[in-house]
Amino acid sequence: MPDLEFKIKNFKKISSTNQRAKELANKGVAPWTVIVAEKQIAGYGKEKVPWFSPRGGLYFSIILPKSKIEDLQTLTIISAFIVAKTIKRNFPLEPLIKLPNDILLNGKKVAGVLTENIIGEDVKLSVIGIGLNTNIEKFPKELENKATSLKIELGRGVKVNDEKILKKIVKELKEQLKTISE
Amino acid sequence: MKLKLKIRGKECEVEILEEGEDKVKIRIGEKEFIFGKEEKKGISLIQTSIPKRDFSKKGIKAPIAGVISEIFVKEGDFVKREQKILFLSTMKMENEILSDFDGKVKEILVKKNQEVREEETLIVLE
Questions:
Q1: Rounded to whole angstroms, how far apart are CA atoms A54 and A132?
Q2: Is B94 in contact with A115 (Cβ distance < 8 A)?
Q3: What pTM value is reported for the model?
Q4: Into how many domains does chain A fold?
Q5: Rounded average pLDDT over B31-45
Q6: Domains and CATH numbers, chain B
């Protein structure tokens, strides 16, 4: 049985979980520390495109252990599958993966993944960030047709347990990276 | 001919593809290596399996294929080892590339939004 332990650090409001994870990793915070924010003020996705991150979503980044860049690439692709699988296993929903980084429900984005690496002579630091719209009730007009949440898709009476979903995703990511690295 | 070797405690399958008087071609995993008379001296299997970059030249290479999304230096700049040089976006990741060396930027071989191959030299330092 592989060691699937991890540590969670909760924040009420930060600029971006990936940014904070990179800062903490730089300061020597151990791999498999998970940075969770209730709200991101400057959450972003690929090419720094903003990720709408009000209270009600699940936003987290994981400090990854030093790995080969090829393995990190594989992990990133797999992470979209893990998020989709977690949604499918826990809710009566049919997620669709829009490769490489997005997960859609009924054609609208519900989750995204962004891995960031700092590379010198070797990979110095890696973090993987996941934004999953769990309990967001309403999106601003400009996003209404592009984004959705689990709560919107499930019906507004349902409340998704963020912590339970987070733990399932991180545990599976850890297991998968271990398999890839070996 | 296939052999099993233990390299640094890890078991590897080594396949000898060609054997001649002067050279031998082997495959370890997906990588092929050719050993000739000259190369035999001082090169061990362990050394050939490690380098991803050529440290004898002051070239900063792409560690992975992708697109250059930002360049932070210009020709003539002095850069320090581990200074941020450029951003390389791959389909799935954003990679901040640091300089491997101290030196002066002699040549920038890529432009913003250019696609690059793995191991392609991006910037030359002197």
A1: 11
A2: yes
A3: 0.77
A4: 1
A5: 58
A6: 2-49 (no CATH), 59-125 (2.40.50.100)
